[in-house]
Amino acid sequence: MIMAVWLVGLVKRKWVTLKRLWDEHIADNPDGYSYPRLTWHYRVWRQAEKITMHMEHKAGDKMFVDFAGEKLFMNVEKLPHFPGCIACGKENHSGLQLELYYDKGLRKVFAEIIFEKRFIGYEDIIHGGIITTVLDESMAWVNIKETGRMALTKNLKISFYRPVRFDEKYRVESYVENINENIAYTHAILKDSEGRICAESDGEFILMSETRSENMKKGLKI
């Protein structure tokens, strides 16, 4: 029982796991508890504690991770929009109304998309021009976040690999590959819910002056 109390007290600390405690225990006591025996003491003690809530979990329904390190945090910023924009504008009810985010850690812009049926071309396949618009918008915004300057599309090269269909979830991601003075070279992909790339693009963008960029940003809304 003393062993269990000792375990419970230590395992609550950051960076501490049962396996790490056992490694230290067996190093100091070569004839000490085996790892299964030590974890058994721990489980018995935990089961004897006062139960505060009962939860039932279906097999395969959720995954729980016992994390022993520093607290995790999301380093993601929701991006503003130009109200009338056909791609991101929230007030343009004929547009895509993309909700874009910037991952500061990965330095990427991304968005989750479910295309509506009104954007189809042939049969139930989303029109290539619509897909191009999504890729272009994502690349423009990653340029804005990485440089602080507004970006105008100069050239786009689009490759289509798989059909994109309405009412299915997709994800667009973009990042800046290189910046040469006032030109930014950017890449974007559109992938399905299984991670398969459906389309990708390489873009060359003209970076506007800081003064003009700041004037244009006045039209943005959160």
Outline the structure in words.
With 222 residues, this protein is α+β, with helices and mostly antiparallel strands. The chain has 2 domains: 2-48, no CATH class; 76-217, Thiol Ester Dehydrase, Chain A. The protein contains 5 helices and 7 strands. It has a 7-stranded antiparallel β-sheet with strand order 1-2-3-5-6-7-4, with helices on one face. A hairpin with a 4-residue loop joins strand 6 and strand 7 (197-207). Helix 1 packs across helix 3 (35-48). It is elongated, with a radius of gyration of 26 Å.
Features:
alpha+beta; 2 domains; elongated; single chain
Distance between the termini: 57 Å
Provide the CATH top-level class of the largest domain. Alpha Beta
Q: How would you characterize the largest beta sheet?
A: 7 strands, antiparallel
CATH homologous superfamily descriptor of the largest domain? Hotdog Thioesterase
For the largest sheet, list the strands in their spatial order.
1-2-3-5-6-7-4
Query: Which value, in Å, is the CA radius of gyration?
Result: 26 Å
Estimated helix fraction: 25-40%
CATH fold type of the largest domain: Thiol Ester Dehydrase, Chain A
Write the CATH architecture name of the largest domain.
Roll
- Give, in order, the helices and strands: HHHEEEHEEEEH
Quickly give the structural class: alpha+beta
| Shape assignment | elongated
The count of strands amounts to 7
Number of helices: 5
Q: What portion of residues belong to β-strands?
A: 25-35%
The number of distinct structural domains comes to: 2
Low confidence ranges: none
Average of the residue pLDDT scores: 82
